[in-house]
Amino acid sequence: MKIHEYQAKELFRQYSIPVPEGTVALSVDEAVEAACGLNGYPVVVKAQIHAGGRGKGGGVKLAGSETEARQHADAILGMTLITPQTGAEGQLVQRLLVEAGQNIKEELYLSLLVDRETASVIIMCCREGGMDIEELAEMNPEKIITVNVSPSLGVQGYHLRELIFGLGLPKEVRKEFSELVSKLFTLFVECDCSLVEINPLILTADDRVIALDAKVDLDSNGLFRHPTLLNYRDTAEEDPLEVEASVHNLNYINLDGNVGNIVNGAGLAMATMDIIKQAGAEPANFMDVGGGATAEMVENGLRIILRDQKVKAVLINIFGGILRCDVFAEGVVKAATAIGLNVPVVVRMEGTNVEEGKRILNESGLNLITAVDLQDAAAKIAEAVN
Ligand code: GDP
Ligand code: MN
Predict the structure, then answer these.
(1) Which tens digits make up the pLDDT trace of 240-289?
(2) Is 197 a catalytic site residue?
(3) Alpha carbon of 83 to ligand 1 centroid (Å)
(4) 131 falls in which pLDDT band (50, 70, 90)?
(5) Is the Cβ atom of 351 under 6 angstroms away from ligand 1?
């Protein structure tokens, strides 16, 4: 689950990680009030969306006066901000963060992420932070310092020395930097994060170390342990179809293609997407209704996919085990009748009572195309969209 920068900074404060003073604002007046409440100018007005690269897209502006703060807030709030991370359609800005401007001496990069291969947390940092870290990672990977930290042992002195000397940090900031990294690691583990990124982490003219930006992604699978963090969810930032799918406990991710697909089991879903591609078509989504799916879940899945305007055909690929093929077929017919099919639907199923299931589909009088196996299903889908 993604959260906003101001929420991530709220978390940072709870762990005594230094961040600029600031307030979230939902209107221009609130933003001006927030600016006036800070200790003088400049202040920074920052768009709050679930994507980075805001600075380059015009979503982060420095204001030298109250008038300027109002101008920036007015321009940014309600704008559709396009950044390299939002895609071409951009993201509507509905919240602002107004912060005290900082006297930046240097911009560093610092992030923590899960490394599945070594089952550890990677701490990654770089002396040259700021806006172009992706580019730097490609051109000068040697400038990026990484250490692997065991989640059970935690950050040790040698990890910190490796980072500090790797970066060549001046004496004056080493202690603060070490404290910040240790606290950040504690936050990362305690909150079940999948990513924490500070870009830039700044060194100020008076040798303080401050998180100027904050990105925190929480592992959704760990959220049941953190009911308070769940309050950070902002569904306005999420794909509406994905929000609805999550309400019905469906694993659904919206993609760019035109073949919708519903599959029970994540592995089968991956294989199905491969087959759609192999047949020369592109999947419009990933949807795993789960190994123990009910007919009702398939119905909800079909409803969500058919609402997606780019979908030109649907492939349903079900292995009938816990969910028997006849029960599944009845569910599909019921759903298709209720929703009304506006695109061809190819159904491939296998398993318990498959003959009975096929009979139900074939006699339904609906635009349901049954396939004998996966290859056949792929060919029929390709024909349907081309
Ligand atoms: P991002 O573009 O979405 O990653 O947003 P950031 O929060 O990283 O802001 C982008 C850039 O704005 C930073 O890299 C800084 O250079 C600049 N910036 C942000 N806050 C301040 C500030 O308080 N003072 C100054 N001078 N620049 C700032
Ligand atoms: Mn940033």
Answers:
(1) 999 999 999 899 999 999 999 999 888 999 999 999 999 899 999 999 98
(2) yes
(3) 14
(4) low
(5) no
Q: Is the pLDDT of residue 161 over 90?
A: yes
Q: Domain 21-101: which CATH class?
A: alpha beta
**Domain residue extents for the chain:** 1-19+103-237, 21-101, 239-385
Ligand 1: residue of 82, 131, 201 to mutate (most ligand atoms within 8 A of CB) is 131
Dihedral sign for Cα 228, 230, 236, 238, please. Answer: positive
380 phi and psi angles, rounded to 5 deg? -70, -35
Say yes or no: do domains 21-101 and 239-385 share a fold.
Answer: no
Q: 9 CB under 6 A from ligand 1? A: no
15 in active site: no
Output the CATH code of domain 1-19+103-237: 3.30.470.20
Of 109, 232, 237, 252, the active-site residue reads: 109
Please name the fold of domain 239-385. Answer: Rossmann fold (3.40.50)
